[in-house]
Amino acid sequence: MFIFATSTVRRSSDRFHLSQSSQRWGWQWCCRALRTRRGIASISVRSAARSLWASAAPSPNSSPSGASGTVAENMESASGTDEVDQRIPVSILTGFLGSGKSTLLNRILKTKHGKRYAVIENEFGEVGIDDELVKNHIRLEGGDELFEMNNGCLCCTVRSDLVRILRRLLTRTTKYDGILIETTGMADPTPVIQTFFLDETLADFLRLDGVITVVDAKHLQMHLDPKHGVRRETVEQIAFADRLLLNKIDLVSSAERRNAQETLRRLNATAPIIPCVRAEVPIEELLNMRAFDLDRITERDPFFLAMDESSENGDHQHEHEHEHEHGEHDHIHDHSITSVGILEPGELDVDRLNEWLSNFLSERGEDIFRMKGILSIHGTDRRYIFQGVHMLFESMPSEPWGTDPRVNRLVFIGRNLDRAAITEAFRTCLRSET
Ligand SMILES: Nc1nc2c(ncn2[C@@H]2O[C@H](COP(=O)(O)OP(=O)(O)OP(=O)(O)O)[C@@H](O)[C@H]2O)c(=O)[nH]1
């Protein structure tokens, strides 16, 4: 359960300060920035898919959790005796950086649905933050489990990790009602989807239930603008969706919302579009929906299930922020988009931090796709969770430091980031006596 503190860092005009009353920042504009820049701001197609579509007799409540033995053993013994597709449903949560995927994930995990999920998280960025964010917001109670895959893009270098984790899940005696995979905000979902068709073992025991794409209504048009270098990822994530959550509609006018809906419809003709705030959507509209339709995908891309051997084995190792290909699916991350991670012990002077962030975002807000971290703020014994998307940011108190070393963990993801300058500027916000 998330623990609220009695004091918090609040932002008023363009300053942070400590307040005893407010429990949490709301989204805040970087006011100075707003004043100065308004716009700131292979193989052949396998028969792996065969069993999938042939045997699927929809049963929304079917779950393999009742029996004992490994998932694989139970599925084996059930096969041939039952028309019901007993495979474990897998949902892919995707969406651009900062769109609200973790918010959705936390909502799903918090909802009392009586189900047990295995959660697989993949994070883009040098310093892993998401595990803390998920764990800080909710204790993984009731048997839910979290697996992390940091420092790699699920669509490439750590794809073999994904296969390994999924296979391991199948050998466990713990029964899951579903598996949730949160991709990085920079991921092309193609290879993740392919995994469930190209790996025969996985295809026998897992079924891809659907791709849920969370869209940031505020920044959609900006991300589609080719000049920002992330149009490809944004388009792919939307095009593959079986459900489109048009999130953050609290931040846009009704005209902007209509415009966003029209844009989504142009990019994806069939997925229901669900406008929402903080991913508040009935879970039953998202999970176990049996929405994934391979035909729709292959109609769009006849080579969807074609990929080369090296990609299948996941052994095309290379650094991130690079070019690489997946068979017919050229997938190129813009070289200029990188992450800068900061790991600094000490306590931050909130005024200095405020001043630096205000100046930094007023100049670079358009290029900063994402900022997130756990901060150690002088004057409070609690960790502060810091979240930012372009010029918007919020912070909230989290768990006490206790006897843990007070270490700031922060990651910036954006274009043309100057590592030395960012690190140096951050250090100047630390109190010297700490
Ligand atoms: N105003 C507003 N803020 C939102 C909404 N949904 C999420 N946020 C905030 O947006 C920020 C990013 O949300 P996350 O759920 O962490 O986004 P994400 O897609 O998981 O981000 P990454 O995976 O790190 O790229 C957080 O500060 C959220 O609190 C919304 O509907 N309205």
TrEMBL record:
<protein>
    <recommendedName>
        <fullName>CobW C-terminal domain-containing protein</fullName>
    </recommendedName>
</protein>
<feature type="region of interest" description="Disordered">
    <location>
        <begin position="310"/>
        <end position="331"/>
    </location>
</feature>
<dbReference type="Pfam" id="PF07683">
    <property type="entry name" value="CobW_C"/>
</dbReference>
<dbReference type="InterPro" id="IPR003495">
    <property type="entry name" value="CobW/HypB/UreG_nucleotide-bd"/>
</dbReference>
<keyword id="KW-0378">Hydrolase</keyword>
<feature type="compositionally biased region" description="Low complexity">
    <location>
        <begin position="55"/>
        <end position="69"/>
    </location>
</feature>
<dbReference type="GO" id="GO:0005737">
    <property type="term" value="C:cytoplasm"/>
</dbReference>
<comment type="similarity">
    <text>Belongs to the SIMIBI class G3E GTPase family. ZNG1 subfamily.</text>
</comment>
<feature type="domain" description="CobW C-terminal">
    <location>
        <begin position="337"/>
        <end position="430"/>
    </location>
</feature>
<dbReference type="Pfam" id="PF02492">
    <property type="entry name" value="cobW"/>
</dbReference>
<dbReference type="GO" id="GO:0000166">
    <property type="term" value="F:nucleotide binding"/>
</dbReference>
<dbReference type="InterPro" id="IPR051316">
    <property type="entry name" value="Zinc-reg_GTPase_activator"/>
</dbReference>
<dbReference type="GO" id="GO:0016787">
    <property type="term" value="F:hydrolase activity"/>
</dbReference>
<feature type="region of interest" description="Disordered">
    <location>
        <begin position="55"/>
        <end position="83"/>
    </location>
</feature>
<feature type="compositionally biased region" description="Basic and acidic residues">
    <location>
        <begin position="313"/>
        <end position="331"/>
    </location>
</feature>
<keyword id="KW-0143">Chaperone</keyword>
<dbReference type="InterPro" id="IPR036627">
    <property type="entry name" value="CobW-likC_sf"/>
</dbReference>
<dbReference type="InterPro" id="IPR011629">
    <property type="entry name" value="CobW-like_C"/>
</dbReference>
<dbReference type="InterPro" id="IPR027417">
    <property type="entry name" value="P-loop_NTPase"/>
</dbReference>
<keyword id="KW-0547">Nucleotide-binding</keyword>
